[in-house]
Amino acid sequence: MVLFWNFMLYSFLGFLLEVAYARCTGGRPNRKCLWVLPLCPVYGLGACLILSLSAPARPFPPAVFLLGALTATGAEYLAAVYYEKLLGVSFWDYRDLPGNLHGRVCLPFSLAWGVLSLPLVYWLGPIFSPLLEQIPAPVGWAALAALAADLLLSALLLRSRRDIGCLKWYTHEKTAG
Predict the structure, then answer these.
(1) Is the pTM of this model over 0.85?
(2) How far from chain centre, in Å, is Cα 20?
(3) Distance CA 79, CA 91 (A)
């Protein structure tokens, strides 16, 4: 169940990172996640893969950086293909950035994933893993059911509407006052 909680935690932290990045860069405020839950599954998937694969590289930070960059970039590429081919939507387009591959991944973000892998492996993982092990199984099953329902609902909405705007649950309109 720890793997599931890692997925949930890092999907949530990814959501927060996306919100902060959009706010700091004036980027698209579109939510890159699910319809209800504030999660970005590509971050959870990438983090779980990095944590699962990094044990042999752990004594060598440059290897963790490289492994993290490659692993997260692979997860990001596969997520983009899934969104485009199966759901008919695209959450990101990196065609204007250097070193991009079909607009799905690019060198600047691959390097960012490598940098983010270091605190994940050396700091966040060791801090959170023992805490996540303490979560009772019934809570995990309830959270898994909520995630599964939201994943299914989000996929159905995206596939039927072919517009990521259907996941937007908030507005940026300012009221006079």
Answers:
(1) yes
(2) 14
(3) 10
